[in-house]
């Protein structure tokens, strides 16, 4: 009681204006933190993040089938270009969304983002029902629009970091990003299933491969996900609040004066850049090497990476993120080596499916570890405002992964691509060990 006479009591107040600001918020002080508000924010944002990854990867799940439609004529190169477009806009829009949390607040940002995502959902549901192939330009435009789902990540994750104390950020951000990444696996699993039957009496499309002719209903995934997208808008509008974390554009640019911004960008480009890039091109790799029948396995890569990212947060809180980022780099180099060995052993022939899948799933596994560990590191290395900016920036650069890998597989051999992964992963592991993991490291985290 005596302490209360020497200092004003700490308390939280929530404004009644349209923004619903929380005043006096400091998650690192129990008196000025609300667990209920923090976890509500996490789950509502995560629900919308799952849908964001769904629309980001919906074109990638549909495009391998588009080329088999009767009356459509998409070359493999055109397909890879379409796969690249969501990655291009996803990365570019992350550079925008990383600035939004301190400028307009969590609630307004989530409502705006969730509403905008309805546009590509509806667009892809409509375009596949056209009786003849639309212009390639329209498909490119819709693929670019789907990149919005990738862009919002750089607003969602930094915003969530404002709501949790540092001791819980590894768990909270690991859960959010890991569950959000499930959107990739969800859409890759649902599309092959959902396109196999009619809904609401709507006409399907005829798909022809070298071995069979079937009917598919490519509009079904959109019809399934659009209602959930509407629910996401309603949840964001009705349940979210904002933590005032004011910063103008010039103030947010101070993160670029810190060398650790660039080092962590390098690390996250390894983990999420490769996760997102290989997840986006996995379907085309399976189809081109083993045939369309193997597309049913495409969801496994993102599923493994997402499960690991979600579950590794508590381990990063306990042991620190730096050591796990080092383990991730070494593990990804070894995993890419497995894929490369399978490619080299096959020569000009078809590689072993078992060896290919083993190496790929190992890459996704270790990428999941690194995705969790890097998000633990950034709030430890930087102050609260800068950490949000760095999370947004690194996520923005890594979001170009689908674009980079689509272009890489379009212009380079698979052997060259996986050789580059090995070299880059080892370089990142060396950086992680020197700056973040070894005893007496400069920024041990």
Could you give a quick summary of the protein structure above?
The protein is mostly helical and 445 residues long. It is built from 19 helices and four strands.
Description:
The chain is mainly α. The chain has one domain (about 30-435): MFS general substrate transporter like domains (Growth Hormone, Chain: A, Up-down Bundle), CATH 1.20.1250.20. Helices cover about 70% and strands about 5% of the residues. It has 19 helices and four strands. It has helices at about 1-5, 35-65, 75-95, 100-105, 105-115, 120-125, 135-145, 150, 155-160, 165-195, 220-240, 250, 260-290, 300-320, 320-345, 355-380, 385-400, 400-410, 415-435; strands at about 15, 20-25, 205-210, 215. It has a two-stranded antiparallel ribbon with strand order 1-2. The chain has a two-stranded antiparallel sheet with strand order 3-4. Strand 1 and strand 2 (about 20-25) form a beta hairpin. The protein is globular, with a radius of gyration of 22 Å. The model is unreliable at about 1-10 (pLDDT under 50).
Shape: globular
Give the total of domains.
Answer: 1
CATH superfamily: MFS general substrate transporter like domains
Radius of gyration: 22 Å
The tally of helices reads 19
**CATH fold group:** Growth Hormone, Chain: A
Low-pLDDT parts are 1-9
Report strand order across the widest sheet.
Answer: 1-2
Secondary-structure element string: HEEHHHHHHHHHEEHHHHHHHHH
Number of strands: 4
Described by strand count, sense and barrel closure, the largest sheet is: 2 strands, antiparallel
Q: How large is the share of residues in beta strands?
A: under 5%
Helix content: over 70%
Structural class of the helix and strand makeup?
mainly alpha
Distance between the termini: 37 Å
User: So what's the CATH class?
Assistant: Mainly Alpha
Examine the secondary-structure arrangement and name the CATH architecture: Up-down Bundle
